[in-house]
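[job 0412] stage=fold_complex status=start
inputs:
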Amino acid sequence: MAAHDPVEQKYVYDFAEGNKDLKDLLGGKGANLAEMTNLGLPVPPGFTITTEACKAYLTTGREPDGLAAQIEAHLESLEREMGRRLGDPDDPLLVSVRSGAKFSMPGMMETVLNVGLNDRSVIGLSNQAGGNDRFAWDSYRRLIQMFGKTVCEVPGEEFEHALDEIKSAKGTHNDLDLDADDLRGLVDAYKKIFAKHTGREFPQEPREQLDLAIRAVFDSWNAERAILYRRQERIPADLGTAVNVVTMVFGNLGPDSGTGVAFTRDPGSGAQGIYGDYLANAQGEDVVAGIRNTVPLQELEQLDKTSYDQLLGIMARLEEHYKDLCDIEFTIERGKLWMLQTRVGKRTAAAAFVIAGQLVDEGLIDLDEALHRVNGAQLAQLMFPRFQLDHEFEAVAKGIGASPGAASGKVVFTSARAVELAAEGESVILVRRETNPDDLNGMIAAQGILTSRGGKTSHAAVVARGMGKTCVSGADELDVNVPAKRFTVGDHVVNEGDVVSIDGTTGKVYLGEVPVMPSEVVQYFEGELDPENTDDALVRSVHRIMTHADAARRLRVRTNADTGADAARARRFGAEGIGLCRTEHMFLGDRRELVERLILASGDKEREDALAALLPLQRADFIEIFREMDGLPVTVRLIDPPLHEFLPPLEQLAVNVAVAQERGEDVAKEEALLAAVRRMHEENPMLGLRGVRLGLVIPGLFAMQVRAIAEAAVAVVRDGGTACPEIMVPLVGAVQELETVRTEAERIIAEVVGDSGVEVLIGTMIEVPRAALTAGQIAEAAEFFSFGTNDLTQMGWGFSRDDVEGAFFWRYLELGIFGISPFESIDTDGVGRLVRIAAEEGRAARPGLKLGVCGEHGGDPDSVHFFHEVGLDYVSCSPFRVPVARLEAGRAAITTTGSDSR
Ligand code: ADP
Ligand code: MG
Ligand code: MG
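[job 0412] stage=fold_complex status=done
writing structure:
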């Protein structure tokens, strides 16, 4: 097809032709190299082959038409510019071939340096460098090693091994002690390794080297580890990578040369300063490979003041230009500084907030942009307690931070042992190679979960996140031996009962118990830290950005709280009311007995007595909550759960009765109870007698609750407070259900409220799909809707949450059937559609209908954006999620031109 196109597609861009906004086409590295070139910074000349070329290659299996010729043309002009030809025997031009996708995928793809060297041009290179043989042979052996490994899949260890052998023959650990002869010998050894594994000689033709390296970069997009990484980071699979061909500059020319990395601010804390590492007489990857000890960047000032000052100048310039933390790679070739890469740097959650605040102070960005640059997931991370790490503690392994938090405990290897020890009051860490659904009880009992295999979507990770439990997965340095009840890591052997500590944010594993310290961000939300008067930069910045989010957001944020204490905490965290007060727990504990009497009542009298006894207890509960939420709306949901939850388990009861009968005891009461439990047994309690159904079946139950609510409100108002109760009817599927409850409730409210001025709204949950689909009718009888997205998800998908999460969700995630559990983040296409329909039809039937959401989705960042967009009035979530929801509601409300923040 392309061959017939009148204008051939442009696949190759000179650095001077690109810019930073072309990441889709040129990849991040290429776009930023172009940007730096156009800023006039010292970037070695080169060109970028587009992601389009890569995509064409990956779909057809061959380079697209025209690509070879375009590369040829760009190479020629590069050769003209440099006055050298690629691999020329006397005066070679050498290049690097570097991958670079739109989103940075550290260490996932390939780079080959020194392309163009061969048996002849190595001599030319030496002459170019004034007879520096050592340098030339060092560069050549690096090419064979990198080319062998990344282009031809020669096992890297073989090269490492050969290098180690030469070093130990010389009696040294330092590669700088190897001289030109040693390195020449190493080249021979490398070539043999290459030939042994590939069945061919190392290619001597420079252009062939270049083409093979380009192709290898294309192929690396689909390497297994790259695929896994993308899945974990949710990077689309079809973006492809660009390839950058860059003139080589040399940091390995002697002590006046070197290479380094730098950050314009500390990516860990956000603090301003000079952060980086420098390594003299070394080439690119040596810095990160830890081959020799790097020195802190500051020391470059002594080594080469001119380059150092120039570098600082460039870093300041880049920050000002990108208006963000930049991450830089550079090389110094005989006193001349070259910039090899820059990008907006990754950072920790704390640094994200601190830096955003600083950039506002510096006038580089405004508060909208600062708000755009942080997110709820980062804020949530900052609200977990953290390990208090000093030098004593060094991580023994690092896995994937699969579910945040800090946990210490005794190591156990089986679910059963975890349950046992937890029952004795011990903190335990469940250690497995990988978990499976049989481990569920152990995971519940454990403080944290540690696995040696599996990524962010493994069973362990998914289930732990669902439970809010700390988890480190895929710590592959751990050798876990379950039958022997121990694991080994490095030289350490850890047996059952030994204590370890895991950090679910960083993925780090420590031996022993690391002390935990509270989050200063939580202290701030609790009002224990004055943001105007602290030297904690994080707290100051969080405060500023939260204040801006509150001013910007349209969505209100309420909390789910059933007790005065929860309500009070949520209020400190910024909740503007209660969106869901569950009344179920008010029937438990020592009130259970009253409920049993209510359920088993043989006549009106008995039932009424039980209800009369419950009324004052309920009233007291509501008074406490209304007081804590003085002046703010409180949505009280009438009793929802299935009745059997209040009764003893059937099997146990049956056994008790049988045993008692055997002994000839009087069991009349137990028998009645057993009969009732049998009668009420349900196969699918979640779909059975619960919610409004219960209220319609047991006379007086809802009436008692409505009376308690109204009386509590009147009592609070009489005391000078302001109570704004909203009565919410659960599990409504048809307007008639709601109307029946409403008629009786209105009568009671009118009677109780009298002229006290108390106003009580009556509304309903929308959590049964039928309710969403008949929302227009239901709105006739409801003053508000609150979406119960947990049940709506269960019934929308036909999933029983308790059963499916542990059983197969991990597999669904692995297969990509969902990107994230629909219980964690709302399924906007399906369940979200139900919300949209109900919101539209409800409001059409009753303008001004109040709309909220009270499922756990109310505190999930992505879901909050969806609820904003659908036009709800508020979200409600657990107290700890309230700040997250406030932040995300603010982010949803602002529109910025800000860049992709990944
Ligand atoms: P990564 O994306 O893994 O960082 P890079 O393509 O940036 O891979 O290259 C790896 C190393 O090689 C880096 O340290 C880089 O600075 C260095 N490097 C790349 N190209 C050149 C070049 N043309 N001259 C000198 N060093 C280079
Ligand atoms: Mg790099
Ligand atoms: Mg529900």
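[job 0412] summary: The pocket of magnesium ion (ligand 3) is lined by residues 730, 767, 788, 790-791 (CB under 6 Å).
[job 0412] exit 0
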